[in-house]
Amino acid sequence: MSLDKRMSAAEIVAQLSDGMTLGIGGWGPRRKPMALVREILRSDLKDLTVVAYGGADVGMLCAAGKVRKLVFAFVSLDAIPLEPWFRKARESGALEVLELDEGMFQWGLKAAAFGLPFLPTRVGLGTDLAELGGLKTVQSPYEDGETLIAMPALKLDAALIHVNRSDWRGNVQVFGPDAYYDEWFAKAAAKAYVSCEELVDRMEDHYPEGAQHNLFERCFVSGVVEMPGGAHPSSMPPHYGWDMKAFKAYADSARDPGDWAQVADRFVGASEADYLESIGGKEAVAALPLPIF
Amino acid sequence: MTEVSLVDLCIVACSEAFRGNGEIVATGVGPVPRLAAGLAKLTHTPELMMTDGEAYLVEQPVPLGPRKYDDRKPAGHLPFSRFFDSAVWSGRRHAMVTPTQLDRFGQINLSYMGGTYQQPKTQMLGVRGFPGNTIYHPNSFFFPAHGPRVFVSQVDMISGVGYNPAKRVPGGNYSAVDLRTIVTNLCVMDFGGPDNAIRVVSLHPGVTFEDVQAATGFELVCADNVTETLLPTSEALEVIASLDPHNIRATVLKDNPPVQRAA
Questions:
Q1: Least CA distance to A127: which residue of chain B?
Q2: For chain A, how many structural domains are there in total?
Q3: Residue among A73, A76, A126 minimizing CB distance to B168
Q4: Tens of pLDDT, residues B55-108
Q5: The CATH number fitting domain B6-251, selected from 3.40.1080.10, 3.40.50.150, 3.40.50.360, 1.10.760.10
Q6: Cα torsion at A101, A104, A108, A110 (round to 10°)?
Q7: How far apart are CA B109 and CA B101, in angstroms?
Q8: Would you state the pLDDT for residue A87?
Q9: Among B81, B84, B117, whose Cβ lies nearest the Cβ of A178?
Q10: What pLDDT does B167 receive?
Q11: Closest chain A residue to the Cα of B57, Cα to Cα
């Protein structure tokens, strides 16, 4: 088999098919593989089940009618707490959903990663989640006999993840203060596709000192593509912060004009090169300051 | 004496929720809870742990708002990728948050209001980590506008565990459900009434129990020894000001009122 896993973004999206369950890494407005999401938005792909700690990735895919079912714990842009395009989709009744607690969500990814049907947890008891989501309970077979929620595996057909560095073979390096659950998206997926800020031929020849940042091993990576600025408008530390101006324009457009077809060009572009040019190029993205809380 | 603003009194009351909590992560979401956690750490409970609002643990609470420099000094690391293992599911955390609704059982909602799961009338954030937080570690609440749309008899979507016997399945372990303090612009409450009923323990100066009851969508208990909420000390005011140099807290309560003079 070829260990050269380089693909174009369009080739990655061509690996996906209608009705698939698609995991998207990152967290809210952070570390989102937005360039790959934009490539999906340029494609005919539809009827997706999207599994994500949601931000504008979820909002855009919902707005464009790509999502049949959403598995989520929140959808938020942080400084803009309520993701307006996601709200619109929810309030129209067009989405099937499975709403989960943030911790249950990663537990479901871990169950899938380990090939288990479920993992037990207390989380969800005493709330409406189990009843609304059809989650069942199990009883501990040991003396304690505790009743627990059986969090079903969140098996993904594919996952999209944006990382800082990769080589042709899928040896990734992930920096920044928090990698969220990207590792588990990769491991829960039959195939994970990685976009990166920087692609090198052989990691060991360039950044051997970064090997401890190899968040997940290359056996979990099926394809890689270099897309500098590929998380924009979400943040990608240490390279760049989020683009709150862009998020605001995107959020405002949900109210006026409120029609995705009229604004998709602005937020997706005919190609990634067009998109980057429209926001001032990858240099402008690289200049976005990291947020301070 | 200069006027004390009501928000400062609320911050001090919120900080009392963290008093003596030990080596746990104090999470304050929103300006008032965050300032309260910082105040607690810098005054009565230095052993508290807290993050910089992102992924690092800091021993010096991070001031609110924009700065031209980044003076966050990490002492440890607590990213979301470890948050459930280290803080939430280990019970080593006390969070203070502001849900959209809270009911007589202490059940909270921040998912949606009205309509159905399939088609909510108003979609909000989603349950976030509330189901896990409420079954695993202590939680307290701050509400800037005490009113009957916030304090409802039954929340629209139960996003956090309360003391509702109808929501307890046999064999479930609810031993860590620990709802502590509710601070509002009118009063301080706890869950110390019969069967964990919500109870008013102190009234802010100039506020009566009847005022609070009228602004609440369910029946409240009034503590026998209900007191007047303490005014901030000058030391507390100094610490609060140092943690909020841009006075962001002035935007939290409507019209940023001063503490009323006692009747």
A1: B158
A2: 2
A3: A126
A4: 999 999 999 987 766 778 999 999 999 999 999 999 999 999 999 999 999 999
A5: 3.40.1080.10
A6: 130
A7: 5
A8: 98
A9: B81
A10: 97
A11: A177
